[in-house]
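S.,

Sequence below, as promised.
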Amino acid sequence: MVHHNPLPSSNCRFLGCQIKGDWIKPGAAVIDVGTNSISDPTRKSGYRLVGDVDFAEVSKVAGHLTPVPGGVGPMTVAMLLKNTVDGAKRGIVQ
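The prediction came back faster than expected:
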């Protein structure tokens, strides 16, 4: 989602600015492609990954919602690699 105006600070919480449930049409499919690390002292690493969507809130409204981590990341990497190989092949042929 691209915003033409910056999000007001009232929409920001400790997790950052996240997509809220009342921004989503009921039953919509929401694909969260954001990846952000936030401090989490309960984790061995000291942080955890979250997306750009308030998962707990949006999951009550959306028909489908991809999680972060474990969502579309592997598909994004696969398509990036495919496009890189396709570009390299075009470069070799020319």
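The chain has a mean pLDDT of 85.

Coffee later?
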